[in-house]
């Protein structure tokens, strides 16, 4: 466990998901690690400084690669990164004007818009989720005696937040397997390997680079909810508020185009993308090389998958109303789909 990124451990705070994004917006701003203003204040002439709020994990390697290769710089954009524990405080930072773009999962995107907070996907994180390789998994603790999904009745499962893509996918797969009475506990990713090892939770939906630690400690992989349920889908994206996009269309276009270029470049240079994790996620070169970027490298938002995720949320009773998926995606040239 000693290799876990010390910087991330300090920056991550325990974050429990309240019932809605709007209800936590003001409090969640406190989770953001840096209170920097967005919108390009203090930029050099002809350049725009933007703040991007991320949840540090392996797929961010594509963004890091785009930064290192000058793909944003050549479009007159300078990036500053902030870290957050989960997508909910990211939304809060966007609404508060402390970040311009940020990492959100599709359920958080849907909930925010359903509750009146207009944010839109601008670019994929790394492409679409790969059908045959995933950087996240539902794992059972070593020595728990759990070796299949139907063993999770009455057990506890850690998820990063209580309205996450991880919860929605895990809940469907666990219930489809016949398990009932499973308890879901909100927990930041960096805390999950130790919680599994200590027996504080029976299972967890965990992502790289923390997944590898859990597996090395003997955790047993049971399923890969995101890739199993939503192959070639959009389960997360970089988003911005509708207001920011209306006022900064040219910047949004540049960010979108730089991410598209970075995704396509990373497809043929994945080793370079993984190498960026040494600096940005505080991994060793060996650890970085072993990571999985769970993408098909298609630089497009999959609207059908957003609709499918929303349908599943409605079926599970986690949302009382729905939104038009097309309204959740910004299109180059302005507007929604």
Automatic annotation (TrEMBL):
Alphabetized UniProt keyword annotations: Signal
InterPro entries: SsuA/THI5
Organism: Pseudonocardia cypriaca
Primary location group: periplasm
Gene Ontology, cellular component aspect: periplasmic space
Signal peptide: none
Transferase among keywords: no
Family of this protein: Belongs to the bacterial solute-binding protein SsuA/TauA family.
Superkingdom as given in the UniProt entry: Bacteria
Upper taxonomic lineage: Bacteria, Bacillati, Actinomycetota, Actinomycetes, Pseudonocardiales
Cellular localisation: Periplasm
Chain ranges of the SsuA/THI5-like domain: 62-273
Keyword Signal included in the entry's annotation: yes
Listed name of the protein: NitT/TauT family transport system substrate-binding protein
